[in-house]
Write a structure and sequence with these properties.
The structure holds two protein chains of two kinds.
Chain A lengths: L2 H14 L1 H38 L4 E6 L5 H9 L6 H7 L8 E10 L3 E3 L2 E3 L3 E5 L2 H5 L4 E4 L4 H6 L3 E4 L1 H8 L8 E4 L2 E9 L13 E5 H9 L6 E6 L5 H15 L10 E5 H44 L1 H9 L4 H30 L13 H28 L2 H6 L2
Parallel strand pairs in A: 5-10, 7-9
Antiparallel strand pairs in A: 1-11, 1-12, 2-5, 2-11, 3-4, 3-8, 6-9, 7-10, 8-9
Helix pairs in contact in A: 1-12, 2-10, 2-12, 2-13, 10-13, 12-13
Chain B lengths: L1 H13 L7 E10 L6 E11 L4 E6 L5 H8 L7 E6 L2 E2 L5 H11 E4 L11 H11 L4 H14 L15 H13 L5 E5 L7 H16 L3 E6 L2 H5 L3 E6 L2 E5 H5 L1
Parallel strand pairs in B: 3-8, 3-9, 6-7, 7-8
Antiparallel strand pairs in B: 1-2, 1-4, 4-5, 9-10
Helix pairs in contact in B: 4-5, 4-6, 5-6, 6-7
The chains are: A alpha+beta, B alpha/beta.
Amino acid sequence: MNFFEMVRFAVRGLVANRLRSALTTLGILIGVGSVIILVAVGNGSSKQIQDNIAKLGTNTITVMRGGGGFGARAQSRNTQGKPLTVGDAVQLSDKKSAPNVKQAAPVSNATSVCTNGSSSTTPASFIGTWPSYFEAKNTKVVKGTYFTNDDVTEGRRVAVIGKTTASDLFGEENPIGKVMRCGGIPFSIVGLTETAGSNGFLDGDSLIISPITAVQRALTGYGNISSIVVQAKSAKVQDQAQIEIESILDKSHGISNVNSRDYRLLNQASLLATTTSTTKVFTVLLGAVAAISLLVGGIGITNIMLVTVVERTREIGIRKAIGARRRAILGQFLIEATILSLVGGILGVIVGFIGSNFMIVGVKPVIVPSSVFLAFGVSVFIGLFFGGYPASRAASLRPIEALRYE
Amino acid sequence: MAADVVAEEAEVAADVDNAPIIDLHDVVKQYGSGESAIFALDGVSLAIYPGEYVAIMGASGSGKSTLMNVIGALDIPSSGDYYLDGIDMASLDENQLAIVRGRKIGFIFQSFNLIPRTSALANVELPLAYQGIKIKERRMRALKALDLVGLSDRLTHEPTELSGGQQQRVAVARALVTKPALLLADEPTGALDSKSTADLLDLFDLVNAAGRTVVLITHEADVAERAKRTIRMRDGKIIEDTAMVLA
């Protein structure tokens, strides 16, 4: 009896037990598919968070008031020391003393209720800044225009707003060219920013960006600013840019001891590193869930394979009585188990790939190749082992023992 | 392969009265040991010659089924010698026993023992497949065997779609398709009505008339009457053998 013949027998055996074959395949399919999709969801959500952070701007260093660390000392430094000023931002933009800085923009945060007739909104962030802020923070205007350096110099009350602010104030209407009142002072809207989404704490689209001069004159006053956004020329020179920033600010703030700085730097790379390690925990958690489902799936496969062989012990006895050798029987059962495992595994991979194309609880899954191989490999191995081992035992029975089996 | 079997059969036919096809010497089959030992076969010696038609009778528990299992190489005796067509069965390993079962013996069981959810034709082809016979020849011989038992119009039917009598005839076709020297039937009529029983026994007469040895186990006297020789068993021993009486 050759191999081809055994395959024919195996296929005939599978077709003769259609329902059981289909259920076994389904069990393997679900096991493999769910692992692939679960891991892809974990990976996808971690990618999504990273993308969101990248959206905040690349090569960006934020200078904030106050020293590093926590506790009383940090508190006192925050209130003592020299505040950040627009002058600091001007110095940081100097090409000579800071050659690795592409541009800098002062940020003045205002808090104000804005209205349009009876509609009103309190934007999560109301920022007064320079046009360079848009590039440094990777904020894009999709409708209308950015404001210009000219607008800053002239102190024009123009504003670029986010989607949430726009819908709060103007509903479905096009906000470009309209006027809103913030703290009673009119601002005309020139642009609408790209949807940023939420970072979990703040709605990134509840946003107003205006020339710093206009915001200071109308709302905050010409005093201290909240922060300075600095963009390095590239990710590579970010560290050099950081050193340049420190030397400029140390000089202008009169700081000799690096431990008593009255400002601190926050760079995107370190923020990214922190969040990446956080999302890794999430991926590991989902991976554990996936591993458990693979285990449960594996036990299901084992169960069906064992039952199949036990149920067919009598058939094995008949086959032996009419002259089947051990090898022929074992071969047939092994090939049956292989076909079921492979077909189930391949269908599971296909389902995993198809399922990963859909948004799942707001996350776009991203497939991890190693999870595909692992899920497929484990299922096929379990199918083969637990299909093969009991079959081998049954094939070794004396025919009369197998025949008497009920 | 087929030619071999035919030649073998011719040889067997020529050897009538010379060498026994079944030769048992003091065969014991014991279950358990010591005080609680049960002897299913308690020193059975028996010779059956080619072309004979033998009925083995006895009450249930008399050891007749065990005897048939030993003769059919489905079970191994605890002690004693068994020669099938001159071959010492104790010297064969698992694989060789399978080959002997496939080539020399055709089995018929009380419960038919067809492979479930498999067509009549595929069931009959199965033993030939295990012998490694090519698909075309297999198909031809299986069709011939099914024609012989009168089931040419039921080829694609599965066991559940056939009556008991028809299932048993498929089993006979499956037993005969390998052209075995020996046809072994264990209570073949036990699950059949009287009409099917009569048909089946006619079929056995036909098979025996063609020179094939037939051994059947039964507890029905009218079935045993069709055989030329009757062996009665009780408590694992042969208590009557019509051949011995004649001799």
